Fold this protein.
Amino acid sequence: MKQLLFLLPIFCLCACEEVIELELDSSEQRVVVEANLDAGTGVCAVWLRKSGDFYQTNDFETVNGAIIQLQTSNGTLDIPLYSDGFYYLENISVQPAEVVSLRIELPDGQLITSDPAITPYPVTLDSLILEKALSGGPGGNSGTEQYSLAFRWQDRAGSADNYRLKVFRNSRYESEIYGLTDDRLGDGEQITRPIIRNTYAPGDTLLCQLLSTDRAYYNYFTDVANSDGRALSSPTPYNPRTMLSGNALGYFGVWYMAEKVIVVGP
Amino acid sequence: MQHPLLVLCITFLGASCVQAQQVTLSGYLKDAQSGEELLYAGVGVPAISKHVSTNEYGYYAISLPKGRYQVRFSYVGYDSKTLDIDLQTDQRLDVELDSGMALSEVVVSAKRDDQQLRSTEIGVATLSIQDAKKIPVLFGEQDILKTIQLLPGVSPNSEGSAGFFVRGGDTDQNLVLLDEAPVYNASHLLGFFSVFNSDALKDVKLYKGGIPAQYGGRISSVLDVRMKNGNSKKPAVSGGIGLIASRLTVETPLDAAGNGSLILSGRRTYADLVLKAFSNDFDQTTLYFYDFNAKANCHFGEKDRIFLSGYFGRDVFNLNRIGLDWGNTTATVRWNHVFNEQLFSNTSFIYSDFDYGFGVDNAGAGINLSSGIFDYNLKQDFNWYTNPKNSMQFGWNAVYHQFKPGKFTAEENGENNQTIELPQQQALETGIYLDNEQKLSNNLMIYYGARLSTFSNIGPFEVKTYNSMDQPEGSTNYGDGVFYHTTAGFEPRASASYMLNDHSSLKAGYNRMYQYLHLLSNSTSGTPTDIWYPSTPLVKPEIGNQYSLGYFYQWPDNQWEFSVETYYKSLNNQVEYEDGAETFLNPNLEAELVFGKGRAYGAEFMVKKNSGKLSGWVSYTLSTSERQFDAINGGQWFSARQDRTHDIAVVATYQLAPRLSASAAWVYYTGDAVTFPTGKYEVDGEIITLNSGRNGDRMPDYHRLDLGLTWNFKSKKSWNSNLNLSIYNVYNRKNAFSITFEESATNPNQTEAIKTSLFGIVPSLTWNFSF
């Protein structure tokens, strides 16, 4: 629904937004895991932080001293602490369809485990398509020429594949774009998917990443996208369902990534 | 289940056998100027305390012992007429009333004279379309769905919305009928306007409780909207030009004898044209809705009449690369037949269709989504005015539903290259009913009846079963035309009215309703993307039981009245999506549903002034509405979003001068029950809110004052016109439409709560004319 709110000025030029102060309840701090295994480069990177009160700053307490283990078919690998709250390991070898999982033992002894994730298949990003966008209108960009962007790639036949599209505009990650799609519409076919939320100006340098992800990662970010009101309609707020146990928030995902860079031309 | 039906039949037979030496006076009650039938109007013989109402076609029949009577015919906004009638044999008498005193009447009238006191109806209100036009409204666009929200027990879905909640129920639990055809989405422009063009409407009746057995299919309320038949005496044109929409209605008799009439009515918004005139930013924007109503009726002798009516309306948005398009189509063919003075029948064939489309076109790649539902309904109703003490209704109907849950297509350079469609579902819904209103004594009237409904799923369809992880574990395929699952519901209805004295009465009512269609929505506010879904072997029918009790008092001069009604409602087999449900073209949608129950109870108070220079009402509702789902909120009861503890409406119209009237409406209600965050965390560069509990917080309270002025220009021959000035939200209250939680625009290292308010003060001017 929120996305449709851009229609509202049409009916009433006095629709307005204002910042308000609310008395919000606090809940106990929970551990937040962000664990990504890039199957293509063999890098596993894990952030461990804690949740905070809504009105605090976005500097979240980190968790150091945890024992993090990645379990693959070749055995268990320790992911060492690299910097404050950040755990990192390179040269990991995993293959498509290989089952991997994560085990985290926090300093206080609390145990967090992930559901087993099935490593997806690699993907190639064939092309990026830029097309002049219609200008103006609510939600549009009046005044300057704008371009819309679409990704095109070939889906792998015979497997259920899940994808996430990411865009870095002039080196800034557009984290508000979730770009989630799968191959239910046509297994093994060429897929073209637009970035619906944003348009781009001439001169913008766009780093476009196409992730082929495991299903649990895809489901988690689908929940994130839906729960924060960025979908067409906003449901009653809820916490995204996670594949992690131990009252943890966040996710563990394994993916292959392909990328291309394009400069938006006039 | 057969046993209670048998008892009912025996009771009915007993009631109908109470035949004395009686004769029947029957006919139609009509508007003297236009020939329009007057629905639910009063016909009474005060001397013997006998009162009946015209039915939904304006027909009445009153059975009396032979004799001479003074019979009074009355209708709100019309001069009453009392006729001296020597009734020795059955007599047909069509009566016309003049609309003489309408200017100072109020908008809503439960009944005329003391009918509200005597009738067994409880939780029922009718709405005069003419008078509803005086209430100030948003953008000056008159809307009956917004006017009924000023009644106790009825509240809006959200600010400016035409959607409504009745006595704590959900919006999909209201049956909205237009000339008997169900309207599956009664909203335009994201809910800010209803599909009902007031110019084409004649009468509206809302059943909040005490729902008669002839209605079924929804557990919360019935809104029965009837279109005008058209002027059968002379051609007439009326219309209006407003801020964002204009209307035009043409009515004409079909012949000089007044044997039939035709009405055509259209309305179109032009918000996009206005915006384009002001700014180039909207050059590529298409944004409008339109409605078209048509109705024709023709008499074939005194006993037969055929009606054809239809509605067609659509919304069209195209904003940059995003397009939305949805609409309703309904068509009704009706045949009224008077078998004899005591037996009236109506046969209807009804078609209703709702479809929705959403599309995005970007960089040559387009995606489209569509869904919908349509019905064919055959319906037969009888009114049998058996004797002076009994009035019986019975009938049946059968509806064939087809559900189109979703079709998705992807296009590239205009060519369709990918399609996915969820399997359509079919079902047959039937109902058979019988009820009777019986006068047991001068003080006591009772109503009793029952409806037996069934719902059958019809193949082809693949029925799946799911394991505890919500994954399909088995399926059965059913072939074309196979009735693979049938469920039935017995729905008793009863009410009673006891006159305590000439000015006050006590009433009680009970009804049980079954609902076989469910609106699946993952939105807090409802969007056209919501899906109508049938009951299935897994999704049980919703069942509502409502108990109500009321006290009604009317001052001796009938100018003032007071009522208090209390109710308790239980809601079983409630359906919701589980948190995070995958709703997009999910072939296993049923696995994403959770089931629970609900309860709602409250008290509604209303003081109303019916006539005089100042008229209007004050209503107050104190209520609770809660839900319980094992899979939500840890299985604990939680407040439904529409749980608005206090709900107040003050409505007044004042005749300032013979041609100038003023009106005001003030509303207040407790803020919606919502879920606010109890913390936050970071994931992938985004701040995510942490939530706990369901609907444990409250939006700020809502209140608003609207004012209106109507100036009637001097009539010239048959030309009439008026100018209406409406000011919405006079004191510019910034009511919260939504509260969202986001990163601060000025300090990205902070998060903040953003309140969005839709409408500040909104003045509007509308010019209406008729000739």
Remarks:
- Residues 202 and 264 of chain A are 5 Å apart (CA to CA).
- The radius of gyration of chain A is 20 Å.
